[in-house]
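Re: the request from the purification team.
They wanted to know what the chain is likely to look like in 3D before they choose a buffer screen. I agreed to run a prediction and write the result into the notebook, where they can find it.
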Amino acid sequence: MVGAPDVVKPSEKVEDQSPHVSGSPIFTISDDIGCSGSTYNMASINSSGDLKSPGDPPDKKITEADAEKQPLSGKKEERWWNTLMQVAVPFFIAGCGTIGAGLVLGTVKDWDVFINVSAIFVLVPSLSGLKGNLDMCLASRLSTQANLGNMDSTKEVISMVVGNISLVQVQAIVAATVVSMFAIVINTIADGTVNGNYILLIIASAVFTATTTCFVLDFVMVLVIYASHKFKVNPDNVATPLAASIGDIVSNSVLAVTAQYMYEQIQVSLWQPIVLMCVYYCMLPMWIFVVWRNRYTKKVLTTGWTPVISALFISGIGGIVLDQAVDQYPGYEVFQPIVNGIGGNLVCVQSSRLATHLHQTAIPGVLPENTRIVEWPWKTWFFGTPAAKVARMLLILAVFGQSIFMVVADFVYQGLVTIQVAFGVTYLLCSLLQVMVLLYLAYVFIHLMWKKKKDPDNAAIPYLTALGDLLGSVFLGLAFFILSMFGMQYGNNVQ
């Protein structure tokens, strides 16, 4: 049979299971995509000899009748205008959220805790990125399950939701603690002293912000994905932008209010941050137990940490850039969340769609026909690959969206429109360059991870959103720096 050598490798364990289904033997093939084994029957082999991925859970079987009804892509291809409308609406809603996040940051930067504890600025992009990583990974995982038909059973949906929300809580507590340590080290280096009270403040604020925002927003996410599936809307197009629509503003607001409250309390007593930390760390074993007993999330509990933790440090570098730029360039804190948020939202749409396509058309470790890991950039942006069609739409949305968001944010922040041509053009160029780099990296990362038998739904998005935060912060900082050299920096014409 053509292609069989690529399907079963000597290192993989293959077992013939009985009874046979519809006269076709069933085979179990071990892989690393979120499970210890994947079940296939002969009906799931397409005409080229490749196996269709059953996705997660691993025991989903594709009957001969179902295989004949499904095209190679697993579902009818979307019309471009349907994709555009499904992506554009949540994209602009998400844009409003990023504008709000920037305005919140512009308001709270003069609060006592932000002035006296500079590490809080390091936490801002890290926690926003962490929330985005966890929520968007959840959205990508559930969107894949919806597109694979695993959300038709109420019992399965409940099991899937409970396991994934518990998993996010585990990741949030651990990751928030790690990023707090990173911020504490940066603060110690900058100030040259160690303040024990500030250490408690930073850790308590970070853990409370991460767990609370993720817990609330995850329920909203689940409802969006379930409703999208019921109304025949592709969740890949709407879930990830809506995940970030209010996420950034909620994250920044909760962090600012919690940190300021803790700052005031530690001047009197330390019992409140200590009790808060004890409560969350005592709940951690319970969340771990729930995740370990759930077949949808058990594998991710032991394999999904490297991308999340690595992404935190990448976002943390962006936080250092924010901490340095906010004092030198007025208005930087207003536009930084917009650039970072919009770039992350768009690349997550593309990465979620690419991951779903691979789950539907390929088996772990084997790329679809005529697909390469490394392509010429213009083939991934414009023409030459199946992903280019959506990439073109996302680039157009980036230009039009950022033009609107830039003017609206300026008007709300200044009370009138003060944008100059030089600033507007430079801002759009830096944001467009960020999105182009992210879209290309998404194509490479997701196909590389699939080839390595790593699930892109869990591994790709943390890296991409973290790189979006870093690239957005750096590119915007360069834009402000270049404009300041020529005396055309933002707000210089405001009386």
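For the purification team: Residues 1-75 have pLDDT under 50 and may be disordered.
Please add any questions underneath this entry.
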